[in-house]
Amino acid sequence: MIKLIGRIALPTYFWIFVAWLFLPLAVMAAMGFRDSNFVAFPIQSWTTDWYRSVLTDREMSASLWVSLQVALISTAMGLVIGTPMAFMVARFTGAIRALLIAVIVLPAFIPIVVASISLRMFIGNFGFSTGIMAVAFGHAVSSVPFVVVMLLTRLNSMSTNLTDAARDLGADDFIVFFRIVLPYLAPALFGAFMFCMLLSFEDFTRSFFLGSFDPTFPVLLFAKLRFGFDPGLAAISTLVLIVTIALGLYAERFSRRRKLGNQGQVTAIGDNGNG
């Protein structure tokens, strides 16, 4: 009886969760095709005019460009800061390592509103102006913990046979890093890059507090929502969702292929060592 309930209840629970997760997205995508200025069901007539209009909307395009600039700058800052920190943490063990990780990931647990206000006060007191660089700095602060965790996880899975074999063949530390360690970290670096890009792109709170007259995409959507929700907002949100899903699938496929290649490399070195 319990097994029968499990066979019925668990799949039912799963599909209810799937519906709860994806049904709002499906409704949003459908509303972008509504031939009306209002968002409501039923949809009596369909049109693609909203999708065409948002693609030619200069204000939307400008905000997307600002968000892209912020995401690229903040991601670069996060990788530049987070990568050396991951190598530093990897050198320690025990309580010291746990303490370092706790300090590094602390920004991820601070309430985002509190973090945004503190960053705004910090920037104002030191004479920095709000704008793209200020927003990128705020986003980078939240990105570093994820970069460190992802790279540290990859470093922990790295076999010492790779570096030992390279040194046995005469490679110095410079060659070992750029020819062995860095390629091995490529999946984690790419994953961190994509995650930080998406994290920055959807960050509304920090963008709102640290931005200026050039709004990011989430801030512009919020400003437009104050005047009502129309199918145009649903259309642009759907397009951004499609691009995000495509980038996520590509990142997952890239990381999987690189991991499989690195695993084959480790196996070959182990076989040669045993031989």
UniProtKB/TrEMBL annotation:
Query: Would you say which domain of life the source belongs to?
Result: Bacteria
Sequence ranges assigned to domain ABC transmembrane type-1 in this UniProt record: 64-251
Keyword Lipid metabolism recorded:
no
InterPro entries this protein is in?
A: Bact_Polyamine_Transport (IPR051789), MetI-like (IPR000515), MetI-like_sf (IPR035906), NRAMP_fam (IPR001046)
What the entry lists under Gene3D superfamilies is as follows: MetI-like
Q: Where in the cell is it found?
A: Cell membrane
One cellular component term (GO) for this entry is: plasma membrane
- Any idea which UniProt keywords this protein has? Cell membrane, Membrane, Transmembrane, Transmembrane helix, Transport
Instruction: Please give the chief subcellular localization of this protein.
Output: membrane
The residue ranges crossing the membrane are: 12-33, 64-87, 99-119, 131-153, 174-201, 232-251
Q: What is an example of a GO molecular function annotated in this UniProt entry?
A: metal ion transmembrane transporter activity
Q: How does it sit in the membrane?
A: Multi-pass membrane protein
Q: What CDD domains does its record include?
A: TM_PBP2 (cd06261)
Q: Which family does it belong to?
A: Belongs to the binding-protein-dependent transport system permease family. CysTW subfamily.
Q: Do you know which PANTHER family this protein is assigned to? A: PUTRESCINE TRANSPORT SYSTEM PERMEASE PROTEIN POTI (PTHR43848)
Q: What is this protein called?
A: ABC transporter permease
Species annotation? Pelagibacterium lacus
